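Progress report, Aim 2. The chain analyzed during this reporting quarter is listed below.
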Amino acid sequence: MNDYFTADDAEEYSFYRIPKPLILNPDYRSVPVEAKMLYGLMLDRMGLSVRNGWLDEQGRVFIYYTVDAVREDLCCGKEKACKLLADLERADLIERRRQGLTKPSITYVKRFRQRSENPTSGGRNDEPTEVGKAEPNKTEMKETE
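Predicted C-alpha cells for the chain:
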C-alpha cells in the first residue's frame, strides 16, 4: 500500500508539464493524449539543450529525441512512436530535420497556440495568439478550475 504525501514531501518530485491549451484548445482536440505527453517530455528536454548550447544559426533551440528514446520513455513500439511524432508534426507542434546517414534527426519544439480568453469590445476574441515563455503556475488550489 502506498503512503500519503505529507507537507514535507510535497516538493520532493519534479514534474513534466503539459500546457493547458493542449488540453483545452479545440485546435488540439485531434492530437492524441500520448502525443501531448510526448510534447511535455520534449519541452523538458529543451532545458538540457539550452545548457548544452544546442542552438541553430538563427538562435532556435533544438533537441535530439530519437524514435528509440521515444519508445523507451513511452513504453511503446516503433510504429506507435513514429505515429506520435507524426501527430505532433501535423499539429505544427514540432519540426524534425534529418541530418543524414547515422546522425539523429534534429527536432525543433515549436510554440503552441492558444485562444485568447480576454473579451474585446466586439465580444469574445477567439483569434489564436502566439504563446511565449511559460510562467510558472502560482495559483492556489482553491483558485483552480
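The chain has a mean pLDDT of 82. The chain has one domain: 20-131. These observations will guide the mutagenesis work planned for the next reporting period.
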